[in-house]
Amino acid sequence: MLAAPSLRPDGARDDRPSLRPTAPDRPQRLAGSAVAPSSLRTCRDDDLTGCSTVPSLRGMSHVVPGRRAVLEALGAGRALYEVLLVAERDDDEVSEAAETAGVPLRVVERARLDEVAEGVAHQGVLARAPHFAYTALEDLDGEPCVVLDGVTDPQNLGAIARTAEAFGAAGLVLPKRRSASVTPAVERAAAGALSWLPVAKVPNLPRALAALSERNLWSVGLAGEAAESVWTTGLLDAPVAIVLGAEGRGLSRLVAERCDALAAIPLTGRVASLNVSAAAAAALCEVARRRAG
Q1: What is the mean pLDDT of residues 97-117?
Q2: Are the beta carbons of 288 and 168 closer than 8 angstroms?
Q3: What is the Cα–Cα distance from 132 to 33, expressed in whole angstroms?
Q4: pTM value?
Q5: What whole-number distance in Å separates Cα of residue 247 and Cα of residue 253?
């Protein structure tokens, strides 16, 4: 089992700061917005399928539903076409945030808001944005990183993103195949975290772990059958990537073999396992605890 948390995988001492920049220093700016939000004129309430000043908006639009998600998107400086607010809701905080960010605000009937949200709960407010922009793996800056091996449930992906951002993770890494992507449902579950947290999509997870190793990050895979515990493994003291497997089946064989170590979350109750988002929270909390100590 690997130890020496103060060493890089190549054996050299690692004296780099282990904490990523604070969230306000690294807002996520989405690509693909050809028109600045301040230049968009307000659309009519009966013209939600496309904004008259951006004919291609229908093909470029991505919905960010939920009050907290919209407020975080506005605070992060994320590129947004407009914010839609349900007619019966008087929300000064959202209105002021949209005005400060220079993003058009439109009051619409609830039926229209439901139509745009496409079945995702929205709390009476949502934003329309360019499609979500993924980050290149090499552009993820800092640690810990969270690598997800085949997590397909949108609620789990959103919850993991929210936990990862809250505990100071540098970003998420997802495979391009057999994985949930960032959708409105994921945005809603993440409660704004995806306006701050970079997400990389990679074609091959074992190769991505090798690339992270070259950047001096150890990879620790969570596995219930592992002999070592997340409470005792020395690797969590070092720059690290936490690797979590899919709901039910856990880590795939190739990903587990590529991890530098496997660790279990000790359970003292009667249930046999944790949901993947709960497991991510436990591991990231332990990493944050060690960094704070």
Answers
A1: 93
A2: yes
A3: 11
A4: 0.80
A5: 15
